[in-house]
Amino acid sequence: MTKLNFVTACVGGYPMHYANVMHRMVRRNLNRDFDSYCITDRPAELDAEITPLEPFLNVTGWWNKTLAFSPNMPPGINFLFDIDLVIVGNITEEINFCIDNFTEMATYRDANGWMGSVMSSSFMMFKTGELTHIFEDFKRNWPALEDFSGGDQVWLWPKLKDVMFVDDQFPLFKKSFKFDLAKLRPDGSGADVPKTVDPSVKIIDFHGVPKPHQLLDWPLVRQHWN
Predict the structure, then answer these.
(1) I want to staple 115 with a disulfide (CB 3.0 to 4.6 A). Which of 141, 150, 186, 208 is the partner?
(2) pTM across the whole model
(3) Residue 70 and residue 66: Cα distance in Å, rounded?
(4) Domains in the chain, start-ordered, CATH in brackets?
C-alpha cells in the first residue's frame, strides 16, 4: 500500500496552534493510516506526532504550500489542507475516493473562481516526485513571484493538466463559510452563522476572515476546532 502523508504549511503569520489543531482534526476524522508532516520554521511548537519539514526555500505566506511539490518531500501520496479549515465530519470516504481515482492531482473548485483559477489550493493531493517541475519553476522565479497577482493557486492552476475535482463526486464535501454558509450583513460589519449545516458537509473553509478562533461561540466550531 502506498504511504499516505498529511501535510500542512505553517510559516510566518499563523500561530502553530492552527497546524496542531488541523492535524488533530484529520486524525479524528480519517480512518486509515497516515503520517503527519508540517512545513514550518517553528518545529519545537508542533505536537509530538507531527514531523517538521524545514522550508526548502525562504518564501512567504501562502507560497509555502508550493514547497510541498519539492522532490525532497517524503515518498508517497501527499494530501494538503490549509490550516484555516474546520473538519466537521468523517472524510474517509472522500479521501479514499481521491486515492483510488486521481492521476495528476485531486482538489476541489474554488468557491468563487478567484481570478480565473478553477481550483482551490486549500486541498491538494498528488504523489511525491510527479509534479516536481512546479517546484523547479517556482524556485527559478522566486522572489519575483512574491507579488504575483492572485497568489499561489492562480499561478499554479495553468500548470496542471489532469485535475480530478472531488466536488464532482461529493458536491458538499467542502463549503466556504463566507460564500456558501454565512449570511453577510448588508452594512459590511461581518457575517451571521447559519443555524444549521447540511450533515453531508465535511469541511468548512475559513479563507479570508473571520477565522475559526474568532467564531468559538458558534457550536460547530467550538465542537470540532480543537
Answers:
(1) 150
(2) 0.94
(3) 8
(4) 4-171 (3.90.550.10)
